[in-house]
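Notebook entry, structure prediction.
Reason for the run: the old model in the group folder had no record of what sequence produced it. Starting over properly, with the input documented here first.
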Amino acid sequence: MANIGAFQPLFPEESVLGPLLERAAALVAQCHRLSAHAGQPLARSMAPRLRAMNSYYTNKIEGQHTRPADIERALANLYDADAKQARKQRLAVAHMAAEAELEARVKQMSRQELYAPAFISDIHAALYSRLPEADRVTDGGDEIVVPGAWRIRHLAAGRHVAPAPEEVAGLLTAWAARYAALPGLEQAVVGVACAHHRLLWIHPLRDGNGRAARLHTHLVLHALGLTQGLWSPMRGLARSHADYYARLNNADLPRRHDYDGRGPLSQEELVAFVAYFLDTCLDQARFMADKLDLGSLRDRIADLLAWLGAHPWQMGSEKSVTKPDALEAVHYVAMAGPVDRARFMAMTGLPDRTARRVLASLLDWGLLTAPGPRSPVSFALPLPALRFLFPRLWPEAEADTA
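New structure, fully documented this time:
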């Protein structure tokens, strides 16, 4: 039988909860302001890049990331000749596909379903079932990871000795019951952070616990209506990964004194982890709100068009043609959504032949996209455009395309 008292407290006591609820309220308020951008054409165009960025950063935390440009090539089914690099590429693509699948699913899920142990298993399976068996070998090379299966052996994660495998099911049931029952949005947000650590404390899977826990956290925040597909804690956790690991490890520590909660684990360190986590989330939400400042978007597009005009590329037998006259048309598509090709060309004010070449060039470079040769054109966000349109959003991608 599982000792469910072993990882108490699962949630901070009332006496120390106030500052955490204030942080959660600030995050909720920022996310509500950010939600004004959700569903806009510009936000939709960012979705593939943000999903790739999430994948990059969660794998970077594990030390198994590949370059953003390599992820881009993998999405085009172009894998590195080096087996280790190709494995990392497949892992990145698998994470992106799992995230997309599960984000669509959680929209209809109750709080109880979000914290059900079966959902943790499903998250792990959604990721690892997309990998060939050769990619699912543990670091020691002695065991195949079974997608969605609870571990059946004793493990240690850093300094933390995980509970015995026969305790996993009971501990997950207690974990789920506590966090699914939290009242109010602010308490639920604090619970997301607590649940993240306590899930890693249980360490229920043979491998991939960190990835599964971060994806679960991302999905619960998404289901609570906070991310709107525009931000994720993964970027912030990776960019402060030393603090992330330190806070996680410290929250494993035993209770220190009479004022350090009532369970065997330190309440002070759990509170410190939650504060760090919520501050990280708030920073990411604020950062994305700044990136989506539409007041300067027009100028950023103008800078990109000027750079494209100064750096033509080969398109078949001709060179690309990009003109600053296309600014209003591109800006309109970014803000309003798809337009017919004839209307786009008319908006440039250029002669018909030149307008066609400009449109073809922007489609070829990827700033515009269309499902068919005569379909309306939509705004897109190719990797090289990030450093112009959303500088510092994904610095590693900027370095890849500079």
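Summary: The chain has a mean pLDDT of 94.
The old model has been moved to the deprecated folder.
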